[in-house]
Each structure stands twice: as C-alpha cells, then as structure tokens.
DNA sequence: ACGAATGTATCGTACAGCGATACATTGTCT
DNA sequence: AGACAATGTATCGCTGTACGATACATTCGT
C-alpha cells in the first residue's frame, strides 16, 4: 500500500493568526491545526507526529484526534497503523463548491469549453498568494494526482496567477511578488521580480497569460482571469497541454480565443 | 446571484456522539457543527441562523464563526450579506483524496474506464448508511450540481449501495435497511425491505447492481463493488446513463462487463 | 524475548470559553 | 424620510472545560 504526493509545489495557506483575540477559540485552532498536519504528510500519521507538528502536548493531540475521530474527520488507516483524514471532509467540500457563486456560474461554461478543447481545463480561485483549484476537467492522459481538487499553486509563477495579477495595480503585484517565497520549482520557473512584472504586463496586453514548464516539466498553460463586477480578480480559467504536442505559438493561437470567450461569458456581471 | 441545491437527496452523516466522554472536546464539536450547518443551507447564513441551527447561544456562534473565519474555513458572502464555507476546506479535500489508498488505486482505472465509456463514471465510498462520491468523471451533458464531489446518496436505493450490500451478510443488509430512513425520492425508489433484499440477491448473482430512476428521473445506473482484501465492501464504481438513450437490457449488456473488469482490476489486493 | 514506540486512561488545577447584555451598523417597511 | 427590526460586534465576571503530567496497555520491530 502506497501513500504518495505531499505538498510538493503546493502552497501552504496563510495561517498567521492574531494572538490574544478575546473572541478566538483556541480549541478550534488546535483542531484545524491537527487536520492541517496532513497537508505536509505523505503517509498516515501517528499521535506523536501530530503532536510534534502542531507544537502541542501529547494529551492535547490525543483529545483533539479523539474528538475529530468521533466526528468522522479523522480515520484510522486501513491497516490500523496511523491516522488519515476522514470522509466527513467531503461533505464540506460539497458545501463549498455549491455555495460558491463563481464556481456555480463558471462550471457550465467550463464544461462547454472542455467540449471544444481536448486538453485539461481548470478553474482556480485566489487565496492570498496562491490559486486553489476548485474544478478540474482532466484530459485523456492526465494522472490522478496531478489533477486533485484542492491542489494549490503559487500566483507568482503560474499562468493563472499572472492572469490574476494582470487585473491588479502595480503596487498590489509588487506586494504579491515580495511576499511570495519564490523558488525554482522547475529550471524554467521565473523568480526574478522584474521578469515577473514583465510577464504580467504581457498578460495585460494580450488579455491572457502564458506559462511554460514553470510548475511541471513539459506543461504549457494559458489562463484568463475571472473578475468580480468591480474588477477585482477572483480566480482564473486554465487550459493546459503538453509541449510534446504543441509549441507555444500554436497553442496560444488555438486556445487563447476560447479561453477569452469563456472568461467573458462568466464575467458578464 | 443565486445559491442553489441543498441536501436534497443527500444523506446527513451519523453524528450521534457520546455525551460525557472525558476526552471529548466540545469546542471542536461546536465548530464542526457550525460548519455542518451549511449542509442544509441553500443560501448564505446569518449568525442567528447558525446559532439556532446548532442549538447554541448567539455568543457561542459568534466566537466559533469568528475563529473559523480567521482560519479561512468560513468566508463572508461576496455581497457581505451572510456567511459561506471558506476556501481552506479544499486543502483538506486534497488531503483526503490523496491519502485514501482506495481512491488512489481506483483513479487510473476509472479514467481508463471513462475512455471506453461515454457515460458518467463515479467512485463512491461507504460511510455508514450512505455512499459518498469521491471522484466523478462527468459525461458531456451532465450539469455541474449533479456531479459534485462530496455528494452522498443512500445505500438502500442506489446501484452502488446494492453492489456494496451484495458483499455483506444478510444480517448486515437487514440492519442497513432497518436503520435507513427510507422514502420515495422518486416514484420508482424501492423502499420495501423485501424488495430491496431481492435486488441485493440479484446483485449477488449478477456480480453487478442495477438501479432505474431511483434517485434521479431518467437515470439508469449500474455499479460494482470495491472490496478490501478481507472481503469487506468499501465502495463502488458507478456507470450512469440516460434512459432516453438506453434501455435497461442493452445498458447492462454493454457496461456490466466493463464495470466488472474495472472493479476486478482495483480489487486485486 | 526484549525494548521502544504506539494508543489509552486518570485526575486536580488554572484559565478558556460561557452567556447575558449592551452597542453599532445596516437594510427595510410605511 | 424616519423609525424599526435585524444584523454583526464588543465587554465582562463566573463556571466548568480542557490542560498537562503521569501512569498503563498494547503492538511493533529486530
């Protein structure tokens, strides 16, 4: 039995909480902290690992895990060797997806788009310095792990991220670049601030953003932004293909108009 | 802006918790209770609604919501009119999906299956009296809301459920039937215990289960069970099509072998 | 067979979270 | 417009919950 794929190029969400907030319930923070331990895990976890990772005592971890287990948010591994996330999580996934108006509005358009495009089509939503994939329509050849709902990627070095940044002020863009932990995820990841700004500018002019192998070797992706009525960028639509089948120019010529149309259909108020 | 689709035919999970458990952390239960309020909601919720639904005081709801908001598990609605589930939920979705060995093992097989089948293909996992959809490869014509990850259906009246029950003892089957709140979701939903037992027996003999419009009008579905090495049923693979294109017999003849093969490929330890 | 690491149980004390209440702000009805 | 109802926000003293240390049980690894 194998357990694979931890965070990898995923981005941890911002969990910098304000200490000494009179309304803040610490027990809840502990619970979520425990659940979040799995973000970095590649295998079922033991109580001690959870306690250590959460910076809490063994007793605290024990009680939290016990409680979450009763409620179904944590399970025992199939072989009873450790703890894994529980199925009740999916109930909340459903709630999130169906109550997010952007997802609801975008989905039919995405499926229509997928009909005209034999490549992977994704919807991502902005959360701080990252984009979180909310809906993914995989192409024929994709592997499962590359296309998980909830997967997240940095804004600074992705097509979707740059499409989003294209709808921000220069100051905001700079702040994102500044605060991001930039590293070369692949050899072709663009990490230089000036170069990123240039790509954002390019996206502004083209109306779409392009990224070549910045996250995954051999992957080409273009994206267009989804914006709220007041112009705030909320997320992006991605079309991703393989460089073994496409060169950048023909990929853009073929898919940029489609991606633009799709975004347009969603963005109308 | 519209917010649609609440629980409907979804099944609420079993949250009957043991009172007076010395290790039970009530604050966590409260937090999850609050998040679970959205299961039944068709629109953004107010503080008072959350408090009332959770059977707690306004202050308690206030603190819980405040905390979950800080952590990103609850957001304000786009128009600042109410509370909605937050995007951090998706991080845990990803954890669940990738750390569940059955999902991991089944996914490539599912995609291969989808390649040979132009209909919807689903993977569901058992949780008590219900099946929870964990992976869904939609066909061309599906609407988004019909194919949400996290959607759940009762065991007693679905193809997947009967495929699962086929791998249980008669006593276990009876218990499921007994404990389920059986109602006619559609006019064709089978709710009579004896009739259900007969359908289970039929599934045992055929190696697959069939359901006709028991959940959704016009839908036909067949399913095969996924079992652990010791024979315990863990979930099912579904193939679902439309009665406007298929009659029961040809649907089975065409897809039963494929569903069986797929389940077989996954079940080999 | 042994030792190390796991999950489980117990218990008195401190402080976290409870509920009542009061305030602020928004939207709605006539 | 003006008043009202309903929303989210803040404050505070008391109670009871969750804390951590420790001891026990059980499984795993070698």
Automatic annotation (TrEMBL), chains A, B:
- Entry keyword annotation includes Transcription regulation: yes
Question: Which residue ranges does the record assign to the HTH iclR-type domain?
Answer: 25-87
Task: Give the matching InterPro entries.
Answer: GAF-like_dom_sf (IPR029016), HTH_MetabolicPath_Reg (IPR050707), Tscrpt_reg_IclR_C (IPR014757), Tscrpt_reg_IclR_N (IPR005471), WH-like_DNA-bd_sf (IPR036388), WH_DNA-bd_sf (IPR036390)
Q: Which SUPFAM superfamilies match?
A: GAF domain-like, Winged helix' DNA-binding domain
Tell me the keywords, alphabetical order.
Answer: DNA-binding, Transcription, Transcription regulation
PROSITE patterns in UniProt = HTH_ICLR, ICLR_ED
Spell out the SMART domains in the cross-references.
HTH_ICLR (SM00346)
Where on the tree of life does the source sit, at the highest rank? Bacteria
Q: Does the keyword tRNA processing apply?
A: no
Q: Which Pfam families match?
A: HTH_IclR (PF09339), IclR_C (PF01614)
GO BP terms, alphabetized: negative regulation of DNA-templated transcription
What's one GO MF term for it? DNA binding
Q: Which residues form the IclR-ED domain?
A: 88-269
What is the protein name stated in its UniProt record? Transcriptional regulator
